[in-house]
Amino acid sequence: MDDKLSFFKDGIRLDGRRPGELRPVKIEAGVLERADGSCYIEMGGNKVIAAVYGPREVHPRHLQKVTRAIVRYRYNMASFSVEERKRPGPDRRSHEVSKVSREALEPVILTHYFPRSVIDVFVEVLQADAGTRTAGINAASVALADAGVPMKSLVSSCAAGKVDGQIILDPMKDEDNFGEGDMPLAMTPDGEVTLLQADGRFTVEEMREAMETARKGCEQIYEIQKKALIDRYSRLEDPKEEGSGV
Amino acid sequence: MDDKLSFFKDGIRLDGRRPGELRPVKIEAGVLERADGSCYIEMGGNKVIAAVYGPREVHPRHLQKVTRAIVRYRYNMASFSVEERKRPGPDRRSHEVSKVSREALEPVILTHYFPRSVIDVFVEVLQADAGTRTAGINAASVALADAGVPMKSLVSSCAAGKVDGQIILDPMKDEDNFGEGDMPLAMTPDGEVTLLQADGRFTVEEMREAMETARKGCEQIYEIQKKALIDRYSRLEDPKEEGSGV
Amino acid sequence: MDDKLSFFKDGIRLDGRRPGELRPVKIEAGVLERADGSCYIEMGGNKVIAAVYGPREVHPRHLQKVTRAIVRYRYNMASFSVEERKRPGPDRRSHEVSKVSREALEPVILTHYFPRSVIDVFVEVLQADAGTRTAGINAASVALADAGVPMKSLVSSCAAGKVDGQIILDPMKDEDNFGEGDMPLAMTPDGEVTLLQADGRFTVEEMREAMETARKGCEQIYEIQKKALIDRYSRLEDPKEEGSGV
Amino acid sequence: MSNNVMSEIRKDYLYHLVMNNERADGRSFDQYREISLETGVIKKADGSARVRLGNTQVLVGVKIQPGEPYSDSPDRGVIITNAELVPLASPNFEPGPPNEHGIELARLVDRGVRESKSIDLDALCITPGQKVWILFIDIHILDDCGNIMDASSLGAIAALMTAKVPAEQYGLGEDWPLPVRDIPVATTVVEFGGVLMSDPDTDEETAADTKLTVITTADGSVCGMQKRGPGPLSMDNIYRIVDISCEKAKEIREKFLDV
Amino acid sequence: MSNNVMSEIRKDYLYHLVMNNERADGRSFDQYREISLETGVIKKADGSARVRLGNTQVLVGVKIQPGEPYSDSPDRGVIITNAELVPLASPNFEPGPPNEHGIELARLVDRGVRESKSIDLDALCITPGQKVWILFIDIHILDDCGNIMDASSLGAIAALMTAKVPAEQYGLGEDWPLPVRDIPVATTVVEFGGVLMSDPDTDEETAADTKLTVITTADGSVCGMQKRGPGPLSMDNIYRIVDISCEKAKEIREKFLDV
Amino acid sequence: MSNNVMSEIRKDYLYHLVMNNERADGRSFDQYREISLETGVIKKADGSARVRLGNTQVLVGVKIQPGEPYSDSPDRGVIITNAELVPLASPNFEPGPPNEHGIELARLVDRGVRESKSIDLDALCITPGQKVWILFIDIHILDDCGNIMDASSLGAIAALMTAKVPAEQYGLGEDWPLPVRDIPVATTVVEFGGVLMSDPDTDEETAADTKLTVITTADGSVCGMQKRGPGPLSMDNIYRIVDISCEKAKEIREKFLDV
Fold first, then answer.
1. pLDDT (tens digit per residue) in F95-124
2. Closest CB from A92, A99, A193 relative to F238
3. What are the chain B neighbours of E42 within 8 Å (beta carbons)?
4. R_g of chain B, CA atoms, integer Å
5. ipTM score of the complex?
6. CATH number for F180
7. How many domains does chain A have?
8. Is residue F2 in some structural domain?
9. B200 to chain D: which residues are within 8 Å by CB?
10. D34 touching A, CB under 8 A?
């Protein structure tokens, strides 16, 4: 890509956002019938659905832990979710994303309530823009709450990036592909970081600025997550809204 | 292939058969020493061998059913059985054939006699013409009887096809490849259908005619299966016939 | 390769050895901290490391033997150990080498001391010249002793070959690739053969000569193995030599 | 699918309902649950459809890319159909490559498209013997509340009917709508307690254990049929099911796929 | 092979027979079970053979197809040997890719063919560096009643000796018989109770747990050898086994493979 | 990694040490174990390095071969990084394809090399769009006594810095040293009992269960960062860890990688 490409015009990003602005976020809890908890999220062009099953019995049994539940997290991209069709099944990237995403949620799940069991989190990326792992964590966090899994708090996640030497919030595809750095972060409402990755090139000062920027994004997402759960509970209390399925 | 190709000459098919005629069928029961039951079949150019092991213990154990035996069916083509060498191991087609073949036999097997056990049916296609799945079911049915597995009845199987707008019995390779439809069927002697598939294009009337045609084929095959089992029992009763192995 | 190539010049081989001479052999026991026993060997250009874990519990449990330990042997080549990069993971060759190597060691291991357990032997080829399987067995044998696994004796291994119609000891790469025959052998100090393979073409007399030649090589290697173990025990008794790790 | 547990009690309950000519959710025996169909939902796909059949949800994406033809049909496009029964959609689904249920589902959808000749594969040739358009039909099950077969089949044909061949992206001229010549529709019926029920939900599927799926074309021909599950069917019931299926397929085609 | 259970009683019985110079089926120690060999049994293969060795049954099919040469031998044909120990043939075989027993069997048969130089790989070049004939030797075990090694080896060479290169089918001239220059024969001996027994049956294989397979060529050379199984052998016994094997291989070659 | 058993007693012991400002092996909190680095140890590789970090041992081999470029970067070389956590190295490693730990390790090393732009991929083009040099970085863990991440990262850059492009072997001119433009160094810190400890050994890794790995370049920039393990970190601690890491990386770079 041409090095002279500018990511800003009059301080405004290519998609019309200011540097510290999130893409539109839409979250809906309780979208699946079979799963114990579920959540659908749109973050910009990302469309991601998460489901939670459990706590339930562990198979194979030798994976059981006697003092707590284990958490499994499977991040998966639908074949048609990306520009060039993706072969179905996990690749090295999705294995890594699953690992860091699981570790982003484990700190808040009260796993010791459920010894010898498993809590399964499944995340399907239906359409991918930049930031699918953070969208997945946001959805998974709400799906866990929807499933009634006891948690210390929600986890909220978004990335900061660096383009044209400037720190931005929530990079979209072009900013991610052609920018200078990407730093996904997940955190609890009280500021504990549960996921942190970075690639690209940041000075130590830029790294700090990126983290502060991402933190602000997480705070906004946290509010949207809470609202989705409140909406979900209202629907549950008012059965007329629940559709014909019940 | 040239669209003008005719599958009939004076009402007679390319291999000399009339529309409602089966290819030559040869069935021999008890052809393997290690298996609990076995059967070799030739149906036209198909050469297929079936073996039954069990009822025996299930591994892995979590597949056990507490009220009945499970049935497993593995349809496999030898690498050299087809025109272009086939890579060893199961492909999507053989998985599907295995599934529908197992379901073709399950209705007649008295599985509740053997809780927590497994009945394994292995079918090896040594040479393939059209109709290997039906040949496999015919052989497997006899092999189950040869193994002494209690059954309500045998299952007999053959296909009907549609070529030049006409319904025929037991399509051979060219009729299958270049014809307009194929409909494999399996049934019990009392007319219960245990396998039914169709592809191609049939009007509803043709569909009925094809089913009636296939039913007649199954009835003929049933007689040959019975004869093979009677031959087998005669040999067993007359040990002189059993060869030097015993 | 040109058929006229001669493998000898004045009775001396291309790398300066006489026909019955081994390449330099260096063996060191106890080179790894985590493993229960370990050994590093250099035989000519081969660099091989072996580790032993166990006797330990068997997973999956259905592999357990009630009267003895099972032995597992995993021969593996590092991707960078050969001329053209090798894809990681086992191939057909390494499965076969693992099998015959395991069988080369099983006769000397007192497996009945440890019912229901497993003794795992892992062999990593870091750099391959000809003869990696024999180097692996030599290292594994010492690693088993280093792990304290009770054995009737050590096992020593090397190959004989045939080049220019003459039997030689311990073929190096070119002699193996372009020679007329290769015969790896492993044996106990009292002359029991525990591994024997051959390919190429040997008259019956050549076969006998090759075996006698390989036997002499094994006897020399046996002395080096013993010395490596004595060195190891001396180090253990003299803690000052053990390095800062303890 | 190994743990498709359903209590005998539930099965008895369904049986008693049938004896009273009822189904658990109040439908008549040949009535489908509410169907909703939305196309163009995935921008990254060249065609897509989200189907809801009661609470069952299926997403189908079609991707069209240039690639090599098969050696035995060098001048024709290629269709590859795949179904992912991801563990998100049911406690009975497990991670890993498609099992026999996923394979059967994909192959049935594929046969419907293929045998109805709805796609003109000759029109998908770019350079004979070298480059053709490859249609990937990817079925993603999101919520399995029964009869994912009919939902997948409907989603597949709807996605195809709204798909565009992305020629421009590959420097092969302007994008053009994928030509669809016939509209195969799959309908599934179970036999349970002596009656035939269309569009089974999860409980009905489990209780009945045998289904017959019939795929019919716009002119009322049968272009695919498959008995699924370990139970027998009489020939008479098969004939009745085919008649029911033809009629239901016609309704679905007219209501949702009328071009 | 994990459940190759054989009671100690059965083993004791075999041991007592050996002490009386007997085998369970009455054979002498160096006697083979009855061998029958039938070629051309699979029309779809370019060469095939069905071997019976007592109750052991093995089917070998050879397919010959054009393909790419290996980069380090651009002007030579390719041999690929594969053995399927399908679960039909023994309660000890399991479905799935070949385990170490199947791999060892295939590699030993392959080495016999290759090291004896029985196939002239130079004659199998079509276009140097681009296209050569690939020989697939596929071994299908049908009934494992012991010593599938010798049966497979015999089947492989018989299938090759009767194989035709299907040149016409690929527009490469007329079909021609595959040229076979040597006839490797594998023979297997077990040591048990101090005696050496040829052609072990299943019980003998299990009781003895160590075998030596020797592959010899028409001129009596050894072109392959492999000790199999977890037991030692003395050098003297190895020498005796090689002598027995050479003689038996000669008999088999003359009786079944005499061109 | 499933059986990474560590008794609570051992963890308590470490905790009490920390309370006394001590570590089990007497190091200060930011002190690394003894490092030794040896390059050129594998002649068959184009670059190689053996790293010892205390008792941890890692071997990295670099192979450079011509191959096809990726279609989206037709004029650039390719880097492929792989880590084998072979069962020889730890009772917690199992045979088979890399699990999530091996994948994460390889991808982190890869990101360090890639994001620091230490390798000029443009210089690795042979024929644009057709042939480029492919760098295989293969990490072989030999003895896992903790912090294999830092050892692997150090081994990888050392192997690259001493690697030669084997052009002659492929008839592509003379061999030339692989040009390395920056020197990324990974350093790992755990938080345990309220303190931050560099270069954790196995027990410390297990006790702490959360690590932060920071990869820095020669100019002190951060080119990679990853929290690993199921525990949270405060932002303040992250900032402190980055500062510690920058300093430690500088020391390691100067001591072992000074060109």
1. 999 999 999 999 999 999 999 999 999 999
2. A193
3. 47, 78, 80-81, 126-127
4. 18
5. 0.94
6. 3.30.230.70
7. 1
8. no
9. 115, 223
10. yes
